[in-house]
Amino acid sequence: MVTFLFGISMGEIIIVFLVVLLLFGANKIPEFAKMLGKGMNEFRKATEDLKREFNENTNDLKDDLVEARKYLNEQGKEMKEDIQRAGQEVKDDFEETKKDTENLVHEETEDVVGEIDDASRNVYGISHEGKRDEAGKRDETPNPGDSADQENNNSEKEEK
Predict the structure, then answer these.
(1) What contacts 20, CB < 8 A, 6 or more positions away?
(2) For residue 138, how many other CB atoms are within 10 A of its CB?
(3) Average pLDDT for consecutive 10-residue bins of the chain (160 residues)?
């Protein structure tokens, strides 16, 4: 047995149809069918109206969501640009500070190297011209930048 609507078989549908035919007669069945058709048509129109209203109302919401998404995307882009700009400023400041630090270290290194060279000359007895005394003493030729060394040497001579 084949079941159709709501578990009712074809045989049961035929029996119901025959009972309706006997109760109401052949003249009333077309009127019932016409009323049933009109009712189904009204039901279809009502569902279409509900669908249309639902779509209209949801279209407004969809438009609002599209606008909100667009606004958020614009704000996100602006924030990204601001962050990139700030990052570039930090990078530029860092590079500038790095260059300044490198220059300062270079200058200080040159000063220290000069002091080490002066100390080496004193230890090995070499003058700024590169002359060395036979006894290993430094040639006492005055140099324009050695005023402090000359004062030290003069004070050592006076002590002797």
Answers:
(1) 29, 32
(2) 19
(3) 68 84 81 88 94 87 91 95 94 94 87 75 68 54 51 54
Q: What is the pLDDT of residue 138?
A: 46
pTM of whole model > 0.70?
A: no
Residue 136 is given by DSSP the state S
**Nearest alpha carbon to residue 136 among 122, 155, 147:** 122
Calculate the alpha carbon distances from 21 to 15, 17, 30, 33, 78 in Å.
Answer: 10, 6, 11, 12, 76
Sorted by sequence, the CB contacts under 8 Å of residue 127 that are 6+ apart come out as 121, 138, 139, 141, 143
CB atoms within 10 A of CB 121: 19
